[in-house]
Amino acid sequence: MSANNPNIILILTDDLGYSDLGCYGSEIDTPNIDQLAGNGLRFTQFYNSARCCPSRASLLSGLYPHQAGVGEMDQDRETPGYRGYLKDQCVTLAEVLKKGGYHTYLAGKWHAGKKGPTERGFDDFYGLLGGFASFWDKKNYIRLPEGKPGRTYKEEEFYATDAITDHALDFIEESRHKDQPYFLYLSYNAPHFPLQAPKEDIEKYKKVYEKGWDIIREERLERMKELNIVDENVPLPPRSEYWNRDRDIHGINPAWESIDPDRQKDLARRMAVYAAMVDRMDQNIGRVLQDLREQNELEDTLILFCSDNGACAEWDPWGFDNWITTSNMLHRKEDIDHMGGPGSYHSYGSGWANACSTPLQLYKHYIHEGGICTPLIAHWPEKVKRKGAIDHRPGHFIDFMATFVDITEVEYPKTHQGRDILPMEGESLLPAFLGETATERTLCFEHEQNAGVRQGSWKLSKVKEKEWELYHIDSDRNEMHDLVEKYPEKAEEMKRIWEEWAHRTNVYPR
User: Fold this and answer.
1) What gap in Å lies between CA 226 and CA 232, rounded to an integer?
2) Catalytic residue among 66, 103, 111, 447
3) Which of 23, 52, 373, 444 is catalytic?
4) Neighbours of 81 (CB within 10 A)
5) Phi, psi of 45 (to 5 degrees)
6) Backbone angles phi, psi at 252, to 5 degrees
7) Catalytic annotation on 23?
8) How large is the average pLDDT for residues 96-100?
9) 111 catalytically annotated
């Protein structure tokens, strides 16, 4: 272990779309995250595992999600890849870094199964153990270990994103009184549904989305080209397909102009609340950055920012107002003003998710680019010298473990608490931080029988009910031109790669 190991802050956001940050082309105001990007490095082809639990398992363990036991969600299906919790054959970032002398903190969302964060290496936790809950109800958020001091809030002053940041700042301050570095996993549950935000933040976006998702998609793509997030020749693909939860309803997102004016107002408000959640999260990240700046700690702290999956299309163009029944209400007149406040419960639907994925295909759940590609920002002035640079090499959540082991020189264990541990699957991002030439990689994916494999510039993708599709990502980033009939041998080669990976990593048996 190096004598001068950096503090590490890994910021994970929940259901953020690929183009939802200003520095990735959005109209949403994200000046603090944009500042990290402007002084750091942006990756354009970095991958998660398509859904909350699998992505978190992969991020924490350095393994593919099925190897860690969380191939789907947190239900135990009693097969090796689908236990619904982190298995004993993996170690977490916190467990590894703790052995290297790090204090380990988690502020935010866990959602990695029945063994909680303090059972998997985190010294302190404040936040949400499950997947989603009201941002206004403080009873959903807990402090661990039990008995540890936490903030107290009056009902009318509690908002989850603020409270998570309050505790993150407390953890950082606590660490300053000890002669050891810290690892903070700052895992926001924003902007996951229910879409809820302070009214002053919603007001900022009240009129912005009245123009509709078609114009928003066009405007975002133009900004993305200006920012070099995508190539200037990338076209805007047709509006995406959608499926409901039971997959018995299937359609294409409608043109905005075809929608009834009352429905347009309802939908514009949903997206305004979503944008406000992203904005508020950025404000809170700004609080953390300001605290580090005031203590002269920003320069030698590694900060990473990413999202756990693509934009959330659950489950149709209108969104829902009840997760259990997925029923939708059409909000009119004075009821519009209550959307996003305490007692409300909304998602924004597949039409806006399509816009938030601009210009990529599909969204959360799927292995097409819109489902698995996340913004990744790396800010570490001590090592990342290419300020404001864009890096197009592929990477994956499995790389965080390898990166942290590399930069801290902490040993990755072969055994832990008497149990054999699977070897890391990822590669260190340090060469990318230093601007070294990228090497070709092969990465594989599966979630809910949606599947894919990325090999160099080639990508094989599959929606559950459909056949495999072959794309050349360098020339067709938004997966519009299926080449499977033109290059059948390449498709078969990549299918074999995927099948071998699936058997090796416990995708089978389902």
Assistant:
1) 8
2) 111
3) 52
4) 24
5) -135, 50
6) -120, 135
7) no
8) 96
9) yes
